[in-house]
Each structure stands twice: as structure tokens, then as C-alpha cells.
Hints:
Blueprint: E1 2-10, H1 19-40, E2 43-52, E3 54-63, H2 81-93, E4 105-111, H3 124-135, E5 140-147, H4 152-158, E6 166-169, H5 173-197, H6 202-209, H7 221-227, E7 229-230, E8 235-239, H8 249-257, E9 265-268, E10 273-276, E11 282-286, E12 292-294, H9 298-302, E13 310-312, E14 320-325, E15 338-342, H10 349-364, H11 367-387, E16 419-421, E17 427-429
Parallel strand pairs: 1-2, 1-4, 4-5, 5-6
Antiparallel strand pairs: 2-3, 7-12, 8-15, 9-14, 9-15, 10-13, 11-12, 11-14, 16-17
Helix pairs in contact: 1-5, 5-6
Amino acid sequence: MKTFIGIVRDHSGSMSGLMSAAMKDYNGVISSIREGAQRTGETVYLSVAEADGVVIPRESLVAIGQVNDIRHYHTGGQTPLFDAVGYLIDQFESLPAYSIDKDTTFVINVVTDGHENASRMWTAQRLGAAIKRLMATDKWSFSFRIPKNGSGRYTLQSAGVPAESILEWDTTEEGMRESSHRTQEAFTGYLSAKAMYGTASPQAAATRQAFYATNLSTVKAADLQKNLWDVTSQVKFFPVGPGDDHKQIQTFAEEKVGKLSLGAAFYQLTKPEKNLYDGRQIAIRDKRTAKVYAGTNARTLLGLPATGTVKVTPGDHGNFDIFVQSRSTNRYMVGGTQLMYWANAAQGGPATNQAQIDSAKAKAATPMQAAANQFSNAVQNAYAKAQAPVKQSMPYQGALPKHVIQPPWNASRDNHKTMKRDNNGRFIRAA
């Protein structure tokens, strides 16, 4: 099976404060794709287009195993975002028929800290029509990382990009790291679902229609212990048998526990949900230990926005089961799943308890204790950063492929040699 992946990198001037983070982001994403291809046996080819005033191709249909990390990230121009995406569409659609089979799929992933402002060939209408046409084939996936609090989501959804394939991020180094982690998880889930279930399977199709779907394939038990509360002793599980299929959740729950408090019943997430409402609690059960964890960070671990109502498409849940709080009395149960009963959830669950504990600690702490705690946390954070591995890499040595849009300056692999620093230490193009 083959997957052709196209990545659009934003190299506009506004990215100048995020050059290091953007470089690490790209290298991390490439690493996750490379590892996913090795693990699943998928044949992956990569093309990369820079949006920097014009579209500058950087990789052109290169086998993922031959793609090297980058060691610098220049910025400077405007953002021809539509042209960059259109360039990759044209390239993939121009592939000879013999290189494509029924299991071949295409992914175009875009990261930007702004919005379109410099395209000359592709308009929003043209790009929207192409995205809708290609998405309808069930072979293509388009995903975008865009800044929060802008009009980008509306523009992209109007162009046919599913809401679950749009990830809004804070345009900070921390925001870049978080969105990079989610993108790496999304590529891992995409390749895993295709390899495990087949290209035509509902699971693989779901990752194409909802790139940023729920995914726990890379989450470890330690992540749950660190970020969530252990509520194992507070919950009970009841299997939903064939005779209970399509039974209303309140009826089923009250047959098991008596009078049901609204919010105490959790259904097992096994199928797409049109609306996972804001404020609904999520619990994660480790299949290997039967431990159950919950808390406000559960959404983040699943790759979902921390707040807001979202459509949820189950992806690769690895060694975990996911249970979602129901505040409906007439939701239909699904045979073969389980219902989780958690009485404390009706009163707010661990999030409320944590808030109360934090408040009590703050009132009890003396100024000296608070300063000691702050110093201890700073030392631990500094030590963790110092121990973080630094990935070594070498620059790509290949020749730049021919391309349609000719840049007005030297766009070779060694284009940093045409750059110089200004008085503020930033890179600018040499005359």
C-alpha cells in the first residue's frame, strides 16, 4: 500500500519568532511518519512546499526513509497558502497511473501561523472546489493547523475541510509543541488504521475524514497517572448484552443501580459521535490493569480540543477503552459495549475535587512554603529540559527538483548561504 504525503510549511515573516520551534516541529512530524511507515510496512512518499512569498518545493516524491531532518528554518515573505496546497494537488494528480492502485491514498497537511495573503494561481473558490472533489473520492485527506481566534476555521470548513481535520493552535513555542505532538499522533493513527484494517475499512476512512480523531496509540500508562486522577475505586462497569441493544441509557442503568443521578452514567466510545458536548467528562480505562483515570486533561490526551463541542471519530485507542459522560436519559445503548457508572461524576468528578484541594493548599501555605515549592518546581523543570534528548541530523544533499513557480531568489538547498543577519540578529536575504 502507498501513501503520498504533502506538507506545506509557512516561512512567512511572522514565523520569525518561531523558527526553532517550527524546525523541531517539522523534524518531529517527519520522524513520526518514518517510524509509522517502518512499523506498518506502508510505502510513503513525501513532498514539501514552502510558502515564502512564492511556493518553493523542498522535497518532491521522496521515499520517507530518504528524507533528512532540516537544520535551519528561514522566514521572510508573505503567505501564498492556496498556491502551496494547489501545487501539491497538481503534483499528486499528475502521477502516472501505474504508480497508483486501489490502496493508494493522499494526505496534505498544512501548518501556518496566519492566513492566505499572496497566492496568484489558486483562489479560495478554486481550492475549495478541488478539496470537495478530492475528498469525495475517499482517497484524500486535508488537514490544517491554523492560529486560534481567527476566521480560518470558517474559511476552511466552507472549502470542504472537515472540522475534525482543523487544529487551532496558540502561536507560541508551547503551542507549536502541543500541535506538533497532536499532528504526530494523527499521522501515527492514520498509518496504523490503514495497515490494521485496510484502506477501504470504516476505521481507515474515518482517519481520512477526521484527521485529528481520537488516538491513544502512543499514550502510556504513565501519561494517565501523571495527567489524570485514578478513579478505579469509584466506578462500576456493566456489560451491554445483545438483549440490551438499543435500550435507553437511563432504563439500562436503573436496572443495574437503581435511581440514576443525571451525569453518573458513561457510555463506551466505539462509534462516531456527532456532538461531544463541552463539559462532558471522559474516563480512560487501561485494559491491561483495569485502572480507570479521569480528569480535565483527558480530552488533550485524546487529541481533542480542551473545550467546545466537537464531533468525535474513534481512532486507534491502543490498550485503552474510552467512556464518555451522558447527560441524556434516552440515549441508546450499543450491544457488546459496557456502561460505566460513576456516582461522583454527577457532582463534578475529580475536576471539582482538585479545585477544592488546590484552594485549601493555597490558603494553608505560608509565603516561605510557597517560595520553596516554586523553587523546587523550577529545579525539576530545568533538570527535565536538560535531560531531553537532542536529535542529531544532517542536511539533505540532493538536488532541488524542477517546479512550476520560479522563486525570485536562489532557492537551492543551501539557500541559507544567500542570507545574512541584520542588526537585530535576524536572517534577511543578501543583496
